[in-house]
Amino acid sequence: MKHVFAILAAGLLTLAAAAATHAHGYRIGDLRIEHPWARPTVTERTPGAAYFVVTNRGASDDRLVEVRPHPDFAGRAEIHTHIDEGGIMRMREVEGGLVIPAGQEVALQPGGLHIMLYELAAPLQVGDLHAMTLVFERSGEIEVAFYVQHAPAGGGTHRH
To answer: What is the pLDDT along the chain (160 residues), one digit of tens a residue?
Structure first.
């Protein structure tokens, strides 16, 4: 009987861990940050990219002003967007921070807004979990865990 309970407990822990890797969110003030994730990289010399959806349920705009990766995996991070310059898509840092309008959501996703990760300590590998601190102008700071995974079906961010 002990053996059956041990197997059941191990199975439940495995399911809980799997669910956590695919559905996780955070709250700070009026903001909700859903499913932070990052793409795997081939080498540590290749910059990484991280994504999430942030929803502002408040009556006032907020602004993501800084992203600080934990120093054990990246030296710095920048908030980036894609812009069309004469028919050529280029990435540019978002100057002054990323506005999160009141009552709206902003999706950081492949091909659009994203977090660039530079000076990686090692390649980002599927299954890795890394911490970053998101700094908002009004709501303050929150540490979030980014899971490294391949892009979700459809290339966008997960919705939970």
So the answer is: 555 444 444 444 444 444 444 458 999 999 999 999 999 999 888 999 999 999 999 999 999 999 999 999 999 999 998 777 788 878 888 999 999 999 999 999 998 999 999 999 999 999 999 999 999 999 999 999 999 999 875 555 444 3
Closest listed residue to residue 74, CA positions, set 148, 17, 158: 148
> Which residues face 89 on adjacent strands?
84
C-alpha angle with apex 12: 10 to 16, nearest 5 degrees? 115
Q: How far apart (Å, rounded) are the C-alpha atoms in residues 12 and 47? A: 36
Best CA proximity match to 144, nearest among 115, 103, 110 = 115
| Global pTM value | 0.80
On whether the CB atoms of residues 144 and 101 are closer than 8 A, the answer is: no
Measure the CA–CA gap between 12 and 145, rounded to whole angstroms: 22
